[in-house]
Amino acid sequence: MDRTQQSKYGLTGQHPIFSTLTDALHVTLQDKTRVPFDPVRMRESVVWASRGYEDAVSINLIIKEMSRTIYDGITPTELNQALFLAATAFIERDPAYGYVATRCLRKKLFKEVTRFSITRCNYKQEYKKAFINAINKGLQYNLFDQRLKEFDIEILADNLCIERDELFEYMGLRTLYERYFVKYEDTYLELPQIFWMRVAMGLCLQEKNKIEKTIEFYNLMSTMRYVPSTPTLLHAALKRPQLSSCYLTTVEDDLKHIFKCIGDNAQLSKWSGGLSNDWTNIRAVGANIESIKVESQGVIPFLRIANDTTAAINRSGKRRSAAVVYLETWHLEVEDFLDLRRNTGDERRRTHDINTANWIPDLFIRRVIEGGTWTLFSPHDVPDLHHIYGKAFEKRYTEYEQKTQNGEIELFKVIDAKKLWRKMLSRLFETGHPWLTFKDPCNVRSPQDHVGVVHSSNLCTEITLNTSADETAVCNLGSVNLGLHIIDGKLDDIMLAKTVTTAMRMLDNVIDINFYPTKEAENANFKHRPVGLGQMGLQDALYKLDITFDSLQALQFADEVSEKISYYAILASSQLARERGSYQSYKGSKWDRGILPNDTIALLEQERGTYIDVPRDERLDWDVVRDHIKQYGMRNANCMAIAPTATIANISGCFPCIEPIYKNLYVKANMSGEFTVVNKYLIEDLKNLNLWNRDMLDQLKYYDGSVQMIESIPDHIKHKYKESFELDPEWMIDISAARGRWLDQSQSHNVFMRGVSGKKLHDIYIRAWKKGLKTTYYLRTLGASQIEKSTLDAKKFGFTQKREYTTTTTTLDASVKKMQRTHITTVENDGTRNSFSSVVGEAVDVRVSQNGMTVDIERAAASVTMVTGNASVLSDSVGGELDSDDDITEGVQACSIENQECDVCQ
């Protein structure tokens, strides 16, 4: 920078802040040499980090904030950290400060990898050298697959688009830095574009045109239009490329197979896979074991072993293990199963380290609606019941019920269906578990109904694949970033088609390259070749289109974009079949019979004998797809599944999967500290209306990010920026139903419910079933609370700064650490703690005793809010309220913005 430029940015001379300090300040270099502190050079660093954002950030404000942490003997690394901390302190004022912080992190990483300063070297040249060095060292250290030697890395280095580093928001780059970049003995080998290119190379190992396809894959990922799942990002091109996200198993009623599956869980988890186990086959407590003439202890003790195995394994040294166990609703131990995640009762019959999910047949829901009874069985008495569905299930189930009447079946229990349903909803409200998933839609609409049965979903409830003793289903996932396909105020169909086509090729490559920890997983994946192309950034797309989430336009857009992704994905799979051949079990599949996902809604209606109210119109010429499949077949048995995408959405800087924004304002905490984040789209709109200022920020803090009570904000902005708990959960069901008709698998649909209405909870889940949803995921609840804001101006907002609610709240009989706001803590799978709140506060670490119920806040596996009162009691009428709104001040929120299970899949 010459003297003219220095003068322009005020770099000449000494900054007033340091006028009395610089004589006493020194910087300690790496070789321990002490040199005088240079304020001009420091200001130059601030100017570099702020370049392009001068209109949005205050350089003087950053320098003033930095001065608080500068001391005599500070190191250059600490100076960069001081700049970073100063920038993050003001992110709440403008997202531009976040990009300043990102550049600080890039500067730190570049120095670690290249040993050069990013501002004092030939940046492009050193970046390309770093790529070549990373590949060569990775091969030398035996970190990478030796087949990388087949690539011309000089050509790939020339195709690095290093300017795309600027696309990262701070948390995205931080996530890559802390968890994804390849290291050797604590030395980083990768920079962001090196990372993307390494993943692309790893997915092209078996491509004929390696260079061409690597560049194509790299361009797609580095622009973040499509991002593969976390295991693919972690392990692509590595020596053991375990690229798949989740594994689904069915446990047989055999002691050897039970412990084989538990051992398989350990192996699968070791290699970073998320786990899903179907335990319905295991005979119930009290059932006779013929070989040794004793009674079975049932399924719960085995689930406890599975729980402890999950807790013991660390996935690839990156994340804690995560698993879910499924049980079908007629199992004799289902009532005990519902209690597995409770914080009261016998700890030997609790599983705090695994998730639980109900596998619900349609007949049970009909019995609930009709007010009928429900019979629970031990699986060894009804061995075929778990493997049939629809009308066949109903016929066989009623036959078994008759056998209980004539004495042929002795071990059973008859209960009121509504009573069991109430308990299911109560436990879901209280603990966030077990999730509610529906057996019949998953099977009736499965493309693979000719070769097996879907016995469960996966860890995030978006996968619906067949499992058996011989086949472990495997999820191979990635997601399209919808927001980046909105160009000039509309969906770019050509770009979307290209993205989906390339993404499907990448996903298909995963199957052939993948390292399989078990033979059963390898068998299933090669036989059926399922993939799950998902979506993320729906909220970003709606913001860019100026569409409110609870509008008919939002439903129509979700329907439209899902149809187009389905169309392009299925066609791409068929085109791959033309090039590479159809999957082994294609013959007899729904694809082979000319039945596409949109056609299967009618099949579900036939099984149920009821109308399913979802849109049926088609915008595209599906005959083109049908004809192509008829001629060439399909490469993949399944093509689409919408995973939660918490982590890859974080990397991409978009909102997760298909969800609305959680909060317009929250505090993000990680190992570097905590800082407030405000919805960047909201800030932009408020700026355009000349409404964005410190007073507006204070009002947002006061209302916890909600804009609904801020009088100066126009109504159309209030509608556009509704948060998740301000949207009708039944409308969200309708949107997922419209989207779901195009999916050959399922979607991770979280339910957001405000308040404590049992009737509302019942209505939501019955609506989900009636609309044909295959699965639901977490129930996130928000009760009435009073939140203190210690950082706001007392003259404006009052000295207590508590909002009043009309709902009565319960006083907690407990000693709680000081909380200055609602504060939600998430423990990630790798042990990282992320916190979300609206002002700085301390995390809760307390056991609360209220009305006979004890809640251990810290023991919950996912982030929680407080639970008080007897949340497990619903009124006698399924449609009734909880006994009192006073029973619960805040219902369990089983996961927050970044739930710990989500990043298993994404």
Outline the structure in words:
With 906 residues, this protein is α/β, with parallel strands linked by helices. 39% of the residues lie in helices and 12% in strands. It is built from 32 helices and 29 strands. It has a six-stranded mixed beta sheet. Strands 5-18-21 form a three-stranded mixed beta sheet. The protein has a two-stranded antiparallel ribbon with strand order 1-2. Helix 5 (96-114) runs parallel beside helix 8 (170-179) and helix 29 (729-740) packs parallel to helix 30. The longest helix is centred in the middle third of the chain and has 29 residues, at 552-580. The chain is globular, with a radius of gyration of 28 Å.
Total helical segments: 32
Cα gyration radius (Å): 28 Å
> Which structural class best describes the helix and strand composition?
alpha/beta
Q: Overall pLDDT, averaged?
A: 86
Shape: globular
Poorly predicted runs are 1-15, 784-788, 804-906
Record field, number of beta strands: 29
* Percent range for β-strand residues: 5-15%
End-to-end Cα distance, whole Å, is 43 Å
Across the major sheet, the strand order is: 16-13-12-7-6-17
User: The biggest beta sheet, please?
Assistant: 6 strands, mixed
